[in-house]
Amino acid sequence: MSSNPPNLRPDLARAQVTQTARPGQPTIGMVSLGCPKALVDSERILTRLRAEGYGISPDYAGADAVIVNTCGFLDSAKAESLEAIGEALKENGKVLVTGCLGAEPEYITGVHPKVLAVTGPHQYEQVLDAVHAAVPPDPHPFMNLMPASGVKLTPRHYSYLKISEGCNHKCKFCIIPDMRGRLASRPAHAVLREAEKLVENGVKELLVISQDTSAYGVDRKHDSHPWKGREVRSHITDLARELGQFGAWVRLHYVYPYPHVRDLIPLMADGLVLPYLDIPFQHAHPDTLKRMARPAAAARTLDEIAAWRAICPELTLRSTFIVGYPGETEAEFETLLDWLDEAQLDRVGCFQYENVDGARSNDLPDHVPDEVKQERWERFMEKSQAISEAKLAAKVGQRMEVIVDLVEDDAATCRTRADAPEIDGNLFIDEDHAALSPGDIVTVEVDEASEYDLWGRLVR
């Protein structure tokens, strides 16, 4: 599990929250670690604080206190969180901890006893109470005006849209349900209202996130809510269709391959939703999947992928996999490589298995030695890189829409419809790019490709 990139961490760079504090205004800094879902939590906390009159500091020195929003998914993520807490204590001294690792307060205070408070994931009210105790608010009704979109830690032209919390799966390697609870979906009209405000305020791309996007609304029995004079179900197909009406790019993340996912593909073929699915397959061998306590239907998944591509040939598939899971044999790993050959996924990430405190997989027999995990990871990445290189080479000569993320002197960094920010590749424009701005959507012709990135020129 990686942290949010440096340009999204206010402790490391001047982010979108930079502001001039009025005299005497209390200020709070934020270090946001972990996944995009945690980043959304950070944005909500900062929005609430801004509404109460707090200033947001982009650095330690200018903050009266610092909130560290932690990740606790893997032991490596826990170590990073503890390191970030220690750095904040050293640089500022007044630190409040929240997020997934906050579900283990004794673990944190055992290492850092000087933290002022520890709260768990999405406990917004408790975080605010802790901030009030550490740094009392000083509201000013005429000077503390909030933008309609709230405080954002992402660039202005894209935003994460969280549609639910928690997860009902019981994967043996994962403790997220223990930290974040069971699935709790937001009402459809609340999601759509937030999306509408974001687009009205300049967002060009909505990145739909949750722990299990396909299961959206199951806990609500897919209830309906009035929206724009009609009833809209709390169901991912209905929600995606409605989001597609706003005119922004809509990208779906963390989509489990349930049968009803096939109903999303026509929306992609019709241009309402980006032809992009982020699906956590994790493995391909049925015995490995069974030990993971995940659906063991790799063969049928290949049939589903073929059916999706028949409906929407432009479809981009991204996924993540775990190698070296307890009990994984060489034959099981070879099955994964063969499956990858057949599936020809466009974007692939891979993790070496790690024990996580509290995960049931820790107690499984036949743990794979570290050197074998590393060797299998290298073989997996070699194959996935070759697939990516061939797929991108086939794009040379094609014309496509890209969204501009960053404009510098030497090039503009962009993304195609097949690339999510921070996790996929980029397309670079290194000529005639000076007039471009972040958020522009332009047409390019691809003239060069590497293993993961593209280069192109503007089509006038």
From TrEMBL:
Mention one GO molecular function: aspartic acid methylthiotransferase activity
Q: Binding positions for [4Fe-4S] cluster 1? A: C35, C71, C100
Its EC number is: 2.8.4.4
Q: Which GO terms describe its biological process?
A: tRNA modification
* Residues involved in [4Fe-4S] cluster 2 binding: C167, C171, C174
Task: Please state every residue range assigned to the domain named MTTase N-terminal.
Answer: 26-136
* A GO-annotated cellular component: ribosome
Keywords, ordered alphabetically: 4Fe-4S, Cytoplasm, Iron, Iron-sulfur, Metal-binding, Ribonucleoprotein, Ribosomal protein, S-adenosyl-L-methionine, Transferase
Subcellular localization(s) per the UniProt record: Cytoplasm
Enumerate the cofactors the protein uses: [4Fe-4S] cluster
- Reaction(s) catalysed by this chain's protein: L-aspartate(89)-[ribosomal protein uS12]-hydrogen + (sulfur carrier)-SH + AH2 + 2 S-adenosyl-L-methionine = 3-methylsulfanyl-L-aspartate(89)-[ribosomal protein uS12]-hydrogen + (sulfur carrier)-H + 5'-deoxyadenosine + L-methionine + A + S-adenosyl-L-homocysteine + 2 H(+)
Domain Radical SAM core, residue spans: 153-390
Superkingdom = Bacteria
Q: Does the keyword Cytoplasm apply?
A: yes
Q: How is the cofactor bound?
A: Binds 2 [4Fe-4S] clusters. One cluster is coordinated with 3 cysteines and an exchangeable S-adenosyl-L-methionine.
Name all TRAM domain ranges.
393-460
- Tell me any Pfam family this protein matches: TRAM_2
NCBIfam families to which the protein is assigned, alphabetical: 30S ribosomal protein S12 methylthiotransferase RimO, MiaB/RimO family radical SAM methylthiotransferase
What function is annotated for this protein? Catalyzes the methylthiolation of an aspartic acid residue of ribosomal protein uS12.
* Record family assignment: Belongs to the methylthiotransferase family. RimO subfamily.
The protein's name in its UniProt record: Ribosomal protein uS12 methylthiotransferase RimO
What is the species of this protein? Tropicimonas sediminicola
